[in-house]
Specification:
By secondary structure, the chain is mostly helical. It has one domain. The chain has 14 helices and two strands; from the N terminus they run H-H-H-H-E-E-H-H-H-H-H-H-H-H-H-H. It has helices at 2-12, 18-38, 40-61, 65-87, 115-131, 144-158, 163-180, 184-207, 217-230, 242-253, 261-271, 281-314, 318-342, 360-378; strands at residues 106-107, 112-113. The chain has a two-stranded antiparallel sheet with strand order 1-2. Helix 2 packs antiparallel against helix 3 and helix 11 crosses helix 12 (281-314). The N and C termini lie far apart (49 Å).
């Protein structure tokens, strides 16, 4: 009992984690209002999931960080088994439904559970726990195990197929390795190789026959549509480029101050924007509240990420620090990609806007992360039994 009371006292004392709750709740409320503009029934569901998310947040605040770290690997095994079951052929469609050709959900009847959302959290915890006292990542060969930790969940998520979610694992891995102390030249070589692969795939879309392509047909079409739209062409606007074109149009229509709820609802309905409550929610936000509303939304994300980085900077526990950085990179990457899709700078790959887009799994998982951040922020300094990395000698990453 005393340990729980001690934990409660630590949580209630002033610490940087409290700074993360305010923008997270603010983003959620903005999301509920935006969803209500285009889908009032979905907004009611989102409000209920908000309450469920707060409950999950509280649960994630209670265990000791060491207990969370020790549970990371068993949880990784469990989520891997679940991801495997989802993609196995013959799974009943009543349990594992297919949406837009993707098998990524488990039907719990009261909500559609998306295990890949939990997989992102567990991946961060597993990687942080593995790297917390190691120095092997200072050598190029030592990066092999972290990449192996990444490969299995990513491979299973790609089989769903969900390219958007799978992509998010890579910047998280690089961010954690960078903070852990991996050498910049090693990470730079990996990023350079990744950019080369992306460039070759884009070139292959235009140069190679379909039988020799690595990307699926709809993925290639979306890349072509984005490039075509950037060049000012209109040939894809009535098919694969329709969604992105309507999103850009509605964002422009919002102007500085927005159209208000009724006019925005009418205009969005008239333009038939697909996934307006989900992937394209940023277009709804800017259409309703204008450019200033979009800037305000990004400011809330800035406050959230700043609070998370402050938690990492003030925390001396290596596991907690690495995990919080990984969560911050996850939110940052997901936000940048989603907004980039909405404004026409990136191809549409099905990534939601954290806290704002409609979806129970995404919202609950996001508040689980906030709970973990609060947990780590409330942790009192302890004597480190083994040496951990520090920020006081940053030049070592250039060696």
């Amino acid at each position: 009992m005393n340990s729980w009371l001690d934990k409660l006292r630590d949580l209630l004392r002033p610490h940087p984690g409290w700074l993360a709750i305010v923008p997270a709740a603010g983003l959620t409320l903005v999301g509920i209002a935006a969803i209500a503009t285009v889908a009032p029934d979905h907004a009611k569901d989102q409000a209920r999931w908000f309450l469920l998310g707060l409950g999950v947040m509280w649960l994630c605040m209670m265990p000791h960080p060491k207990q969370i770290g020790r549970a990371a690997m068993p949880l990784a095994v469990l989520i891997t088994v679940i991801l495997l079951l989802i993609v196995l052929p013959g799974m009943p469609r009543g349990l594992v439904p297919v949406r837009n050709g993707i098998r990524a959900w488990i039907n719990l009847h009261f909500m559609m559970l998306q295990p890949s959302e939990s997989a992102k959290i567990i991946f961060v915890l597993t990687l942080a726990w593995y790297l917390r006292h190691r120095r092997s990542y200072r050598f190029f060969a030592g990066l092999l195990v972290p990449f192996l930790i990444l490969c299995l969940p990513v491979a299973l998520i790609l089989l769903e197929p969900d390219l958007g979610t799978a992509i998010l694992f890579f910047p998280v891995l690089l961010g954690i390795l960078l903070v852990a102390g991996a050498r910049l030249r090693h990470l730079g070589a990996i990023v350079g190789l990744a950019m080369l692969v992306i460039g070759l795939n884009v070139a292959a879309i235009y140069l190679l026959p379909d039988s020799m392509q690595l990307l699926q047909a709809h993925q290639r079409a979306r890349i072509k549509a984005t490039i075509s739209q950037a060049k000012g062409e209109t040939r894809y606007l009535q098919d694969v480029g329709f969604q992105q074109d309507k999103s850009v149009t509605l964002i422009g229509a919002g102007g500085w101050g927005g159209l208000g709820a009724e006019r925005a609802e009418t205009l969005i309905g008239f333009n038939h924007l697909p996934e307006n409550h989900n992937d394209m929610i940023f277009a709804v936000v800017v259409s309703r509240w204008g450019f200033l509303g979009g800037i305000g939304l990004m400011a809330l994300y800035g406050l959230l990420l700043g609070a998370m980085l402050l938690v990492a900077l003030t925390n001396k526990d290596p596991f907690s620090r690495l995990a919080v950085v990984g969560f911050a990179v996850l939110f940052f990457s997901q936000t940048v990609i989603n907004i980039g899709m909405a404004i026409g700078l990136l191809p549409i790959i099905g990534i939601t806007l954290p806290f704002v887009s409609y979806g129970g799994s995404s919202l609950v998982a996001s508040f689980a992360i906030i709970g973990l951040v609060m947990n780590f922020a409330a942790q009192r300094p302890t004597i480190v039994q083994r040496p951990s990395f520090e920020y006081d000698n940053p030049q070592t990453i250039f060696e």
